[in-house]
Design brief:
Layout (H helix, E strand, L loop, with lengths): L4 E10 L2 E3 L2 E5 H8 L5 H8 L7 H7 L2 E8 L6 E2 L2 E2 L1 H24 L2 H6 L1 H18 L1
Antiparallel strand pairs: 1-2, 1-3, 1-4, 5-6
Length: 136
C-alpha cells in the first residue's frame, strides 16, 4: 500500500514580506503517533523555524492553507487545494482495521478463498464494529 502524505503551505505577508512556509506531512506517521492530524500551523511553524510566540506565527495562523501533492489515499480527499481531514482520518482508521482483519483471514483461511469471498471481509468488519458498539 502506498504511503499517505500531503504538502501543506501557508501563504501570507508580514511586514511587506511574502511568506510561504510549507511542510510535507507523513500522514501515516501522524495518525500512528497521535490518532489524528494535529494542528497544522504549529507543525509547519516548527518545521520552518518560525517561533510560535511571534507575531509572524500569529499572522500565519489566520492565513490561507493550501494543500497539494497528495499521495496514497490522501489523493481522494484533496480537492482544489483543500483537504478533507475528517474524511481522511475516518478512511485511514477503517483501513487499519481492514489490514488487521486481513491478517486474521490469512491465518485461518486458504489464500485462494480470501480473494473470492469479499463478503467474508465485510462480515468480519461488521463483527468488529458490533464489538465496538457493545463494548464501548
Amino acid at each position: 500500500m502506498m504511503a499517505n502524505s500531503i504538502k501543506v503551505t501557508f501563504r501570507f505577508s508580514f511586514k511587506g514580506i511574502n511568506y510561504q512556509p510549507a511542510s510535507i506531512l507523513d500522514l501515516d506517521k501522524l495518525m500512528d503517533t497521535t490518532g489524528h492530524i494535529p494542528a497544522l500551523d504549529y507543525f509547519v511553524a516548527n518545521n520552518n523555524d518560525i517561533d510560535t510566540y511571534s507575531y509572524l506565527f500569529e499572522v500565519m495562523q489566520v492565513s490561507d492553507i493550501e494543500f497539494s501533492e497528495a499521495q496514497g489515499v490522501a489523493v481522494e480527499f484533496c480537492h482544489k487545494h483543500d483537504f478533507d481531514i475528517p474524511g481522511f482520518e475516518e478512511k485511514w482508521r477503517k483501513q487499519q482495521i481492514i489490514n488487521k482483519l486481513q491478517l486474521i483471514v490469512q491465518q485461518y483461511f486458504d489464500t485462494d478463498k480470501q480473494t473470492e469471498n469479499k463478503s467474508l471481509m465485510d462480515a468480519l468488519l461488521a463483527a468488529y464494529t458490533l464489538g465496538l458498539e457493545t463494548n464501548g
